[in-house]
Design goal:
alpha/beta; Metallo-beta-lactamase, Chain A; DNA Methylphosphotriester Repair Domain; 21 strands
Length: about 375
């Protein structure tokens, strides 16, 4: 059983055995749409993949990994079991393989997550839960320290899977890079009280959501650079103006995958350089989505002899829809479907097809 595998003690320090040579550490923040995916390459060539983006970015991720890797991934980390972070993992592992897989251990059933767990078991990939305080020696002086998920898990938050994300701080010489998954405000408060957070680079939590990157957290991290992994024209309004204002207020230089493309960091432990794939245009911030309006009155039409006949919604629209940038789906007749931008909308004839895409039912109208 997979969960029994999680109880095995994985000797990550031995797996990522250090070597004496010095060199550069590189981190790639991939441009894979509305989601997260980053690859760490240590000075000794050891690799850690953190998240794998949405299903729509899987082909792009697979192509970039093929260009950067010469062997299997040493460690694949899933910060939390949401589709925009796990959607490309099976494809990445099917091509490149992995010595080990780590996730938070927070149980959040979904078709995509269940499929990934079955894949790991079928291919005998070692699975472990992340634990606070674990140090993963990547070699050449690079160390990845796990600061989350919390123990015990948070419960009753705005989003428990997000709040229980794996958080990791990468240290190489004098440089520090903080990976945050989709951490929520509760996660950030825990981190603030957990010790030193100062980092030169912050992977901005939750794509620049207004529910994270709180002022006390940013004051503790003090990043010089902020990396936002986000899809162009996404339906969430990420990054929000509130989060950007707070980042700008502390003087962080902001890079965004929707504007800058893939973002590459290179450091020798003393100096750190950031290389965006393209020159960013003037930043534009999508307006935050407005609250959904109340459900409209049922449509009525004139029947025979002028009699008023009620036309039920399911007689007007059938099927299910989702945004290609979203991890949930709606009934086509649901108010939430009206907020999906036309260029992003995809349709499913049946609920089974919608579930098979790896998405979960939205909570607004229980499709």
């Amino acid at each position: 059983m997979l969960r029994s595998l999680r109880l095995l003690a994985l000797a990550l320090v031995l797996l990522l055995a250090p070597a004496a040579q010095a060199g550069e550490l590189k981190v790639y923040f991939f441009d894979i749409g509305q989601g997260d995916s980053a690859l760490i390459v240590s000075p000794t060539g050891k690799t850690v993949l953190i998240d794998s983006g949405p299903p729509e970015g899987a082909a792009s991720l697979r192509r970039r990994l093929s260009e950067l890797l010469t062997g299997p991934i040493d460690l694949a980390i899933l910060t939390h079991p949401h589709l925009d972070h796990l959607g490309g993992m099976e494809q990445a592992l099917s091509v490149h393989g992995a010595q080990a897989f780590m996730d938070s251990g927070f149980n959040h059933p979904s078709p995509a997550y269940s499929s990934l767990l079955r894949y790991l078991e079928a291919h005998n990939i070692k699975v472990v839960n992340a634990t606070q305080g674990r140090n993963i020696d990547m070699g050449g002086g690079a160390m990845l320290t796990l600061l989350g998920p919390p123990s015990p898990f948070f419960s009753g938050t705005r989003s428990d899977p997000n709040a229980n994300s794996i958080v990791a701080r990468l240290t190489f010489g004098n440089e520090h890079i903080l990976f945050t998954g989709d951490a929520e405000e509760e996660t950030e408060q825990m981190l603030i009280h957990g010790g030193d957070l100062q980092s030169d680079v912050l992977k901005v939590p939750h794509h620049g959501s207004r529910h994270s990157s709180t002022q006390p957290f940013l004051d503790a991290v003090k990043p010089r650079f902020a990396i936002i992994s986000v899809g162009a024209g996404n339906d969430y309004g990420h990054p929000t103006r509130a989060a950007l204002d707070r980042l700008e207020g502390i003087g962080a230089k902001i890079f965004r995958t929707d504007l800058d493309g893939e973002i590459r960091l290179v450091t020798d432990g003393k100096n750190l350089e950031v290389y965006p794939a393209k020159d960013a245009p003037t930043a534009s911030v999508a307006a935050e989505p407005e609250p959904e309006p109340p459900a409209p009155e049922p449509k009525k039409s004139r029947g025979h002899m002028g009699k008023v006949v009620e036309v039920k919604k399911h007689d007007v629209e059938r099927g299910f829809v989702a945004s290609k940038n979203s991890k949930v789906f709606h009934k086509a007749s649901c108010n939430g479907a009206e907020h999906i931008k036309a260029d992003n909308k995809i349709s499913f004839a049946t609920r089974k097809q919608a579930l098979a895409s790896g998405r979960e039912p939205a909570k607004d109208c229980n499709p």
